[in-house]
Design brief:
Layout lengths: L4 H4 L2 H4 L13 E2 L11 H12 L12 H10 L7 E5 L1 H13 L5 E6 L4 H9 L2 E6 L9 H11 L3 E5 L11 H10 L3 E5 L20 E6 L1 H5 L5 E5 L1 H7 L10 H12 L1 H23 L5 E2 L6 E5 L3 H10 L2 E2 L1 E2 L10 E5 L3 H15 L1
Parallel strand pairs: 1-11, 3-4, 3-5, 5-6, 6-7
Antiparallel strand pairs: 2-8, 7-8, 9-10, 10-13, 12-13
The structure holds pyridoxal-5'-phosphate.
Pyridoxal-5'-phosphate binds next to helix 5.
Amino acid sequence: MFYTPADLIRPEILALAAYHVQEAHKLIKLDAMENPYSLDMDTVKQWLAVMEHAPINRYPDPAASGVKTLLRKIMEIPDTLELIIGNGSDELIQMILLTLQAENRVVLAPEPSFVMYKILSQIVGMKYVGVPLNAEDFSLNLPAFLQAIETHQPAVIFLAYPNNPTGNLFKLSDIEAILKAAKGVVVIDEAYAPFTDAHCLSLLVEYPNLLVMRTLSKLGLAGIRLGFLVGNQAWLEHIEKTRLPYNVNVLSQLTTMFALQHYSTFTQQTQTIREQRAVLFKQLSRFLQLTVWESDANFILFRVENAREIFNRLKQHGVLIKCLDGGHPALKDCLRVTVGTPEENEQFLRALQLSLV
Ligand SMILES: *Cc1c(COP(=O)(O)O)cnc(C)c1O
């Protein structure tokens, strides 16, 4: 007789819940940390002129050299460091894990943090261990984290800086203490670099096992899927072997190069988002029913009694945000709103006002 799926599918895959994305049809979409601004028509026309000549009958440049050259220039990545391009940074996380995977090897990350660290660890068959953040301000519990390093000897540690979904930056002295204590690879995930002045690129010269990961998704290019990993050649030459030869398609490569040549357009947008974040934070803080946490990213986390009910009411008022209740215990009754345009933020606040009564 035939095998059933349950006979053959790896137990860790059977146990996994499919990654669920909320339907956003006709809703104001403030759930996924996207940049709300589109490009002006003039810029769109220039972009289309580039697309017109895209050689879609050919495989893309496997080395993505045009993309890498511009990334080095604009992100100020020194020539002494290597660079790997991913189909979004999600794929880079997967590549790092595939490179280091072995039975009983541990992946360590603070919790709550970006869920893909855990999901991808489970998919590749590594053991994932989460270390709770301090409950009141989501800072690192350094003694607990160092103890977990000692106990589990992780092959890889992920630190999102700023952290998702909490929005805060961990203390640099805590990060350095972790870098000093860890024998394995430490990945600092700077997906929200466009919204903060803090970054860890300068630590790369000092710590040979540090890798810094970035993405263009939150900058304003979530649709093209482009992430990159920066680090020492000794690690990256091996991680590179797990990359599928044509992982970033020709349209994404050309669009990335175009975007990097128009980088100031995007930094103007992210600057506006940073300003709007301050406005939104102030307005949210006026609601006495909410606990609101300061953020260095393009979203704000807040707690409200009956979060699920509030989330549903917001949806009925036409606004989709993210409900985090039911995930990690530290996120009980927590909601996360992405900073939108001033109009979208106003509509969200109005919907919130109506939902709270
Ligand atoms: C959004 C996000 C990513 C995923 O980025 P992609 O490049 O779109 O795959 C990675 N890390 C963190 C912390 C994020 O919030």
